Amino acid sequence: MRILIIVGLLYFSTASTFGQIKAELDSIDVTASRITTTISESGKNVSVITQTDIQEMPVQSVDDLLRSLPGVNINGRAGFGVQADVGVRGSTFSQVMFLLDNTPLNDPLTAHFNTNIPVALSEIAQIELIRGPASTSYGADAVGGVIHIKTKTYMRKEIEAAEKLQTRTNFDISAGENALRIIDASAWIAKKNIRFSTSFRSADSDGEQFRNPGFDKGVSSNENYNSYFDMMNLSAALSINFADNWNWYVRSGLENRDFNARYFYTRSIYDESVESIDSRWALSTLTFDKGNHRSEVNASYRQVEDVFDFNTAIASANVHETDLVFLNASHQYELDNDQLSSISGSLNFMRLMLGGQVLNKQIVSTDRGDHKNNSWGLYGIHTMKYDFGLSVTSSLRLQSNPVSDLSFLPQVSAAYDAGPVVVRTSIGRAIREGDFTERYISSEIPNLTPGRNIGNPDLLPEESTTFDVGLDITPTNNLLISPTFFYRSSSNLIDYTLTNSSAITNADNLVAGENYFYASNISESDVMGLEFISALSSKLTSKSNLRTEAGYTYIKTESDGNSISRYIANHPSHQLSLKLALNTGDISIQTLSKYNVRSEQSEALINAEVPEEYFVTDLKVAYKPLGGRVQLYTQVINLTDTQYQEILGAPLPGRWILGGIKYSL
Fold it and tell me: Which of 124, 184, 275, 397 could connect to 409 by a Cys-Cys bridge, CB 3.0–4.6 Å?
């Protein structure tokens, strides 16, 4: 019944008249490649979450925001942004590139940490989802797609400020059940050619209480456990325009997380895990922009310390410290009108970019050892647009990695704008390198117990080729219907396979003749799918309007033999989403709903079950007096109180009510 209701709403959403959708496609600039284009010119299936969306939607974290986007699969381990794995178009969580202000966030220890976004929600200006491969522009890991988070100061860094002092502050304070407390605040100040901003966010709760399976089995003295969390981040940014053509932007910050991690990574009855993560980071961008030339240098540094305590009664905690250093340099040249006319009279613009980047990763770990590796890439990007509506972007990357030979990664995307219909297509190759966990897990544990995971330092990169074709149909300026077909073929997929120690030649801490789960390049897979997106915004009365965004994603994954990865298959086969936003006078009501159909999983030992299907709705009701500068709101997470898991053993929040106040000046 639920799926019929949502399908009916999908049909309704494509049969109505409404808002300014065509204008959004033509006006919002995105970085589908490192060369900025509009959505309709990119040739990619791109979704954008704006600052207004972030302020109005019933969400409390970036992964909550991403749940609203078709083609995105979230496997959460807890609510409120504690931890979640993000896949795009059936990719694994390791095959999605996260960027913050044009620098990478992907953690070298494990991609489980990729959604540890270290800035406050109130400081985020825009989130871009670029579906499909982008390794030619951004490097390894951009297989399923790219999620680019852009802060307010970054997006305004090259806008000339007024002579008068300008200030802006945002506060969001809320509280709710289970001793939940959230504070999210940001402040911005600018004068002449200088901008400064700072932001702070904290979220903590005692969490929900669950029955402890270990107590029932007689291996724990605690009858219950709580899904508690305590998280905080603080950041500051500075942007300076100098010497007319130069801009320097820098942002730095710190983040702390402490949370219950029981059954996040294991299904052991002895699992009583808690985890704490501390990170320190900085990023910087230097740009020179004059005439037809634009040069840019991006740099970032991130240090993360992870302390994972599985069970203090059994073993001491594992401690991992990782360092990530990134450097990118590029130069872009745009041809002028005389040069364009000499090539073709129908060319509107042509841009060329050449660049290179270096990535250094290091780890110091109690169970993985001390390691470091370097990778680099050289890339070229070419984009052009003709006055008859055709836009083409082509790129090529030469990518090194720590183990295999050089990889050549080509990509081409094209879009034809025929007014009410934009036809787009892309094809490209991408790779994903094994992380430190896959390469070195348990390598420093003497006489490793049989049946445990052991890393493989000789892992080859995963490789894939992806093709997609789609339409963006706007029969009026206010209606969008967007179907897309995609296909991805992958090889050298990394998974753990039961292997006898006699066949493992690069580990010396194994018991002779015993079996271990050994990280290996064992799988090939083909992923085929369909995305459908519709959006409408209708004016109901002079003071009321309704916006509806609906999506459906179908994904089918096939693999060679029985070697399919447990990660590559861990996505819904059918996924429907519906977002409703009603504004009437000073009142706004928003709902965000999701319906998933996926493979059922269960583990009786820990009373865990991932259901075959589940439906979840979040609701927010807000009163916004004083022209919207103040917002008093109530939010209900999981309105239907659905009991479900997306990672086996880690229950997600049931119905959870909170209320708060937002203020903007």
Answer: 397
